[in-house]
Cardiolipin synthase
Amino acid sequence: MQDMVAGIAAPVERGLAWLNTFWPAIAATIGVVLAVWVTLHVAQHKRDARAAAAWTGLVWLVPVLGAALYLMLGVNRIQRRARQLTGGGIDAALRAGAEQGTPLQTDQLQALARLVGRLTRLPLTGGNRVSLMEAPTALAAMIEAVDQARDSVFLATYIFGNDAAGRPLADALVRAHRRGVQVRVLVDGVGALYSLPPITGYLRRRGVPVQRFLHSMAPWRMPYMNLRNHRKLMVVDRALGFTGGANIRAGYIQTPARIQDLHARLEGPAVAHLLLSFAADWVFTCGEVLDDNYVGELNAGGVQARGINAGPDADFDKRRLTLMAAIGAAEREIRIVTPYFVPDQTLLATLQLAILRGVRLVIMVPEKNNLRLVQWASLHAIKWLAREGAEVYFSAPPFDHTKLLTVDGHWVQFGSGNWDARSLRLNFEFDLECYDDPLAETANVLIDQRLDRARPMSDADFRAMARWRHIRNALAHLLEPYL
C-alpha cells in the first residue's frame, strides 16, 4: 500500500515542481494568447475607436482579468440570441411599413423625418394624441387605465418599486389579471433590485406573468450586466399607450418629492410602435409571442409621431444618429433637458456647429445629480458649449429625471434615453419623436417652468470655478465611454 501511495505521490510531486518552475511562462503565454484574441476581436467588432483602444489597453495591461472582463462586458451576442428566439418574425414586423412622405413645417424637418424613417424602418404616423404629464399624474392615469382594461396590459419598466408608488399599480395589475385580462410585466433584471424584496415576487405570487430582462442568479447565464432594458412602456388593450422617462418609484409621489420626471399618455397609430417594442422584448425574454396588432383609433389627434427603438442589437446607434440629425435640422433653437449629459465628441461637435450657425442652444441639467461621477463629467463637457455661447442652467431640487428635447418649436422627442454612453450604446431605450407645433409649445412651457426655478451657469462662472474642480471634472470625463 505504501509503495502504491509512493508511486502516485512521486509523479504528483514532479508535476508540482515542474509547475512551480514554469508557471510564470505558462501564465504569460495564456495572457498573451488571450490578449491577441481580444485585440483581433475588438478590431473586427468595435465601431468606436476609443472603446476599441480602451479594451485593447486593458487586456494587455491587465492580463487574463482584462480578457475575462471583455468576455463578460464587451462581447455583444444579444442580436444573434434575439433572432434565435424570435425566428425573425419580430424583425420582419419592425421593418413593415414604408416611409410615408407627410408634409411637415420645414424642408429640414421633412429631411429629418425621412432619415429617421430609414433608420427605424417605421412609418411616421399621423392621427395621434400625445398628452405630456408630470410623473405623479402619469402614475395615477396608468393605474386608472389598468383598472379599465378589458383585453390586455403590457408593461415594461426599468425600475418597479415595491413601495408606495409600485404597490398600487401592482394591485391594479393583479385585479386586471383576476378578471381575465392578459397581463404581462417585464422588469429589467438589475432595475428590479432597486427595491428589495423585488415587486416581481409580489406579482408572481398573485399569478401575474412577470419576467426579468437579462436576469439570472447563475453568473455564467448573466454575461450582460451592462446591457440593461431602460425602456418605460405600457400598452392597454392594444389601443392606449404610456411612455416617457419615469420609473415607478415612491420618490415621485412622496411629499416633498425627491424626483420629478415627465411621462406621456398616447393614443393613435404610434401606439403600434410601443406594441412592437414590447412584443420584441417579451419574446426575447421568455419566448412567448404576443398579439402586437394595434386595434385603437386611427385618428385620435393631430400629432405626427414615431417610436425610436435603440439598443446594442440591430437598433445600434439609431438614437445617436437621430439626435445628430435633429440638431442639424435646427434653424432657431434647441432645448435639451436631461439628467445625464455626457455626449461623445461627435455629438458635442454637432452641438457646437449648431451654435456657430446661430442656433440658440439651451441645456438644463440637475444642480445636484444622483450620480456624482456623471455630474463631474457633464460639467467638463458643458463648459465647452458655454464658451461657444450655449445657455446652461442647473435645475433646482428635486432631482429632475426628465428627458426632453425640442427643436424650433416644431419637433419634440422624449422617452427613456439620456445623453450619455450608456443610453447611446449599451441600454435598450425607447423614445418618441413628434412633429407638432402645439405639442412643442406645451413641451416648451414645461421647460420654461423648470427654467424659472433654475440657476444659470455662464462661461464666466465656469472660468471662476476652482482649478481643482476643473481637474476633477476632466478626469471624470476621461471615463465618458463607460458612463
User: Anything to note?
Assistant: The chain has three domains: 2-75, 79-103+125-305, 318-482.
